[in-house]
Write a structure and sequence with these properties.
Blueprint lengths: L2 E4 L5 H4 L4 E3 L3 E5 L7 E5 L5 E7 L4 E7 L9 H15 L10 E6 L8 E6 L2 E6 L2 H5 L1 H12 L5 E4 L8 H5 L3 E5 L4 E5 L2 E5 L14 H10 L4 E5 L5 H8 L4 E6 L2 H16 L9 E5 L2 H7 L7 E4 L11 H18 L4 E7 L6 H15 L3 E7 L18 E7 L1
Parallel strand pairs: 1-4, 9-10, 14-15, 14-17, 15-16, 17-18
Antiparallel strand pairs: 1-3, 2-6, 4-5, 5-6, 7-8, 8-9, 10-11, 12-13, 18-20, 19-20
Helix pairs in contact: 2-4, 6-7, 10-11
Amino acid sequence: MSKVFLKKGKDESVKRFHPWIFSGAIFKMDGNPEEGDLVEIYNSDGDYVGCGHYQNATIAVRVLSFDRSALKSDFWFKSLEAAFTKREHLGLTSGDRTNCYRLVHGEGDNLPGLIIDYYNGRAVIQCHSTGMYRNRADICQSLKKLYGDSLISVYDKSAQTIPGRERDSHSDGYLFGTPGDGEVSENGISFIVNWEVGQKTGFFLDQRENREMVKRYSKGKRVLNLFCYTGGFSLYALSGGASLVHSVDSSKKALEMLDSNLKLNVDSNLISADSLHKSYCTDAIEFLRSVEQNSYDLMIVDPPAFAKHRDALRTALRAYQRLNAQAISKISSGGIIFTYSCSQAVDKISFAQAIFSAAAQTGRRVSIIGRLTQPADHPVNIYHPEGEYLKGLILYVE
């Protein structure tokens, strides 16, 4: 196994259990590690400080363990078992009303580079590092051992997330089980999840609690859901008694899935009538610009990540400002806006400042009545604050 030696003083973050070793912190390497290899990490005095996956990138090593436990044969099962136990304590693994959750959230579960979402018996893996990608078989076997006969399939959806040459040669596919969509329940509302063609792993599990909050505010409201995808917020608003819900997305396929989800819940009497809903397949920002003032009492503004890297931060903040200025200016008096950023490069202070600038631009009186984030099955490692990627504000506009 290759060894990585850190420059003097560059082991401070490792001592604080931060799971990333940056390339600039490396003094020398003993050996010639390839992408994805497991390497040992030593400080400048030659003391062992951890081991992790090597990557020829700015983040050179993603630390799996600060001792030698990652070298043991039962490492993958023990790690997944610990993640499952965490969700078990959260009441997510045996609930009747919710049977989908995130099992592994990268650094938040001490498995940097790995995402696993669980959809009512079907697990979807997404690898964000070569090291995790090369351990897919072990991860799959550990999932089978963890869930037993209740596991229907394991789908690998890493083609768009793994770095380097593996991306060119990899095709998404089943590591175990048979193809098929999954019907899940989230807070008692039903959704059809298609992980093969859907965004990310098929469904945005990180908005579960925020969707429930929208439901609480929706009774009697005219609701606009921008960037609606397959209609999560829309269905919650309808179940909460909204007087009408308009859903906007540029993806025809996403809106077709929204229609299927709507029918599923109407047929099971979870939602009273689909006549209160209408979809618009168009650019959400252009749609918002064309909206007449006072047409909506509640808006959900949940765009895709405007900044995937810090280089795009300034442009992203301007985009958030323009988008939210439109929403604030158009909503009715006494209206409520749920606005979000899922860009990891945008911290919550910068996002709040962008919304402040948007409000000031409109000249309307705006109050923050709630601050939102990701749910507990998307945990933030206390030693890795960068993991807090989802930021949201609830705005009241006078």
